[in-house]
Design goal:
Radius of gyration: 16 Å
Number of helices: 6
CATH superfamily: Glutaredoxin
Order of helices and strands: HEEEHHEHEHEEEEH
Helix content: 25-40%
Largest sheet: 7 strands, mixed
Strand order of the largest sheet: 2-1-5-4-3-8-9
Strand content: 25-35%
């Protein structure tokens, strides 16, 4: 009975998010990584225009992969800046943070510069990484107010909007934590608590 209620609640939350985003989840989102699963190799273009490969990072540190809807939007900016502000503690705990959204590498670079972010952002413009992790996303072009290199207000566009989920990959390459109901401004602190508790 409890499991059934949880299923109904999860379906309701997803439906509300889809309605707010203005589209339908990508039909091919069938696989969903869960705690204990081995993370397949993945790569993407980072905010510097270079290729970021998971194989060069997994196993060396605990990796936080946090998916977020869009650069320069309210909740996402709070989440990004909270990771920035807690980076000293995260680094001391042996954690590497990677943010992933459907924005382009160029938009990521502008977002990172404007908010002085001190970690990597990956461009998942086709939702390939999101699909790998099983994170729902909307295939619909959207725009947001952003800032260029001179802090002049501009409009930035993305082709997909990924739901806000956070994963932690342990040094053994498996998922040790997954949160599909992230509170944007509390995410970084939650990660610190989780990693400290698990002793990873």
């Amino acid at each position: 009975m409890i499991a059934w209620k949880r299923l109904v609640l999860t379906s309701f939350v997803l439906a509300a998010w889809v309605a707010a985003a203005g589209g339908t989840p990508a039909a091919e989102d069938k696989t969903e990584l869960k705690k204990g699963d081995k993370v397949p190799s993945f790569q993407a273009t980072d905010d510097k225009g270079k290729t970021w490969k998971s194989g060069e990072h997994v196993g060396k540190k605990v990796i936080v992969v946090y998916f977020f809807p869009a650069d320069f939007t309210g909740g996402c900016t709070k989440q990004a800046c909270s990771y920035r502000d807690d980076m000293g503690k995260l680094t001391s705990a042996g954690i590497e943070v990677v943010g992933v959204s459907g924005d382009s590498a160029k938009t990521h670079a502008l977002f990172k510069k404007h908010h002085k972010l001190n970690y990597t952002l990956l461009a998942d413009e086709k939702g390939e990484i999101a699909k790998l992790f099983g994170v729902p996303f909307i295939k619909k072009s959207r725009t947001a107010k952003g800032f260029d290199e001179n802090d002049k207000e501009i409009m930035v566009e993305r082709g997909i909007t990924i739901q806000r989920w956070t994963f932690v990959i342990g040094k053994d390459g498996t998922i040790v934590y997954k949160n599909p109901a992230v509170k944007a401004d509390q995410d970084s602190k939650r990660i610190l608590e989780v990693v400290k508790k698990q002793g990873k």
